[in-house]
Design goal:
The structure holds two protein chains of two kinds.
Chain A lengths: L1 H6 L1 H19 L4 H7 L2 H32 L6 H19 L2 H23 L7 H23 L15 E10 L5 E7 H23 L1 H11 L1 H6 L4 H26 L6 H16 L4 H21 L4 H15 L9
Chain B lengths: L1 H16 L12 H11 L1 H4 L2 H28 L6 H15 L13 H23 L5 H20 L17 E2 L2 E2 L3 H24 L1 H11 L1 H6 L4 H27 L9 H14 L5 H23 L7 H15 L3 H13 L14
Antiparallel strand pairs in B: 1-2
Helix pairs in contact in B: 4-8, 4-11, 4-12, 4-13, 5-6, 5-7, 5-11, 6-7, 6-11, 8-9, 8-11, 9-11, 12-13, 13-14
Classes of the chains: A mainly alpha, B mainly alpha.
Amino acid sequence: MTRFVERHPARALIVIIAIALALWLIFAVWPPGLEDAIGRKRVFLNAVFNGITLGGLYFLVASGFTLIFGLMRNVNLAHGSLYLFGGYVGYAISASTGSWILSFIIAFILTALVGVLLQVVVFRRMEGQDLRQTMVTIGLSIVFADLMLWACGADFYQIQTPNWLIGPIELPLITAIKSSGEPVYLRYPLVRLVIFAASVVIGVAMWLALNRTRMGMIIRAGVDDRDILAATGVRIQVVFVLVFALGAGLAGIAGVVGGTFQSLSPGEDIRFLLASLVVVIVGGMGSIPGAALGALIIGLAEQLGSVYIPTYAIVVTFLIMVLVLAVRPQGLLARR
Amino acid sequence: MSVTHDARVQVRPATAQRPTARAWPDINNPAAWIVAVILLIMPLIANGFFLIEIFATTLILGTIALSLMLLAGYGGMVSLMQLTIAGFAAYMVAVFGVSGNANISLGWPWWLAVPMALALATMFGTLGGALAVRTEGIYTIMITLAIGAAFYYFTNQNWAIFNGHTGINTVSTPHFWGVNWRADIPFYYIVLAVAALCYFAVEYVSRAPFGMALQGVRDNPRRMAALGFNVNAHRVAAYAVASFIAGLAGVLQVWNYRQISPGSVSVGACIDVLIIAVVGGITRPIGPYIGALVFVLLRTFALDFLIKIGLDGNRFRLLIGLGFLAIVFWSSDGVIGLWQRWRQSQRPAASRPGGGRGHG
């Protein structure tokens, strides 16, 4: 952080000013002139919170994607299918047992198993052939999509939010001052905040695991140079299988989250595949902090865009990607 | 770096087969002449349904896949946005030309709207390519897929130009010299002419200095850069050529269906183009057309076929996906590769061309 400030003082200043402005917009009571110009503060705050929580969901999907890519150089275009599969599994579990937490566990285990199968049966046989692996994942995503359409139909499914999470919660953020002088606080769905907190916890846990444990050290070494790592005697195939299982499992969890936030239907796989692609392109391939930053940026851009410039929301996301590619083709937080 | 190895693995058979002389290889091949004659007299053989739904559609899809083949086979860049470029050209024809949505279409005559659409599509594709070449190999797939998906969602959301998810309907087709060019037989010949033009153009490009340099860039970009070639300029130029070809196919597509909607530029359709090219084989220009024929035949008849053997007719995409997987697993250069291997196994082993690395 300090190195960034030392090396790019001007950029750091811009970033600091932007953050300060954002904080002011969130915490201050808006003067009437501003409300006239860009609408109510409640709308803005809701969009910001939606964006941040959506970013949490995107992070869950994209972190697995970027982890798998970073270690195995495998662009897993079937990642969206894993997401949708996890969602359907979660729906089935929560509908039959009524337990929301259990649906997460089962979805994680089952998608991780699918990931292990993919790695052992398919990708190990074509190691080092990136393009062919990618093509195979495209084929797999088509097959999976059709199998799931076959099994689940084209209906919309929504996973039932558990009772203790239903309903809004009042946040200590003032959206407006009533004429009586009484402040109005922001009310926001509790479940989204809980899920966001959970994804932050997962992200921090992943970061700690990668940076503070022996296994994480092996994985980071593998990201840098897997050949040398294999030469030092690490059983790299086992590491590959574990990482693939973790990445796929995260996609499965994200599926349950997405099924609770939004809904599950055919086509969602492609939507979330695209989201994770853009997130990792923006954040930097193979970097977990990059995925977090990218997910936050894309989530915010999507939600703010859909509130303030509805017909061009997707273009904003796309423009961010283009901008990043033009300025930093390797992604914002990638090392290479 | 590893991507260049990949490309080399894929193109090895083709380069081993291809003679070094700069001659048209098809001229001495009787099979090519037979195919050409059959295609020319097709209206005598096939009725309207087969002529348009099967053969014209095959040729249009094949031309889109041909543009991908040019990029992937000669440039080593797998672009998933070729269909998007074709769709963009189609949209532009509908927007500038005459259509049922009078509030959107500008009503230009076709001879003005089509060049405009082609120019814009080429520009669009070149810009997308300029973005994509900033990264390499598998990243190209992701970026072009992201562009394709962004365009699909944009057409869905935008009502001012693209008319949202309903798209633009009843696009008018050219009508001059007393001929309705959208009538089955004239349209078939237009499609055939364009497809043949694109096919031979790609054949020519592959032999021209530009194509040679492009293949050099594919095999070893560093060495080409050291030799003084501008690697990125060659790649972007390849995108420009491919975009023009895809744009032509897009114009034909919108005339074929007389409408264009986001469904035609969906992500699934983008991936279909990749499937077509890979199933046919991305080492030779004829591959995409073979792949397109297989794809169109499957798409049209899979339903009846599946029901006939007692399965659910809606599982057409499963069939396509499994076929694609099989091709990727066992023959990295598609149907052409299978055919070549079969031919080689028929020949005595001594006359087999050396399978070594022909270049590098």
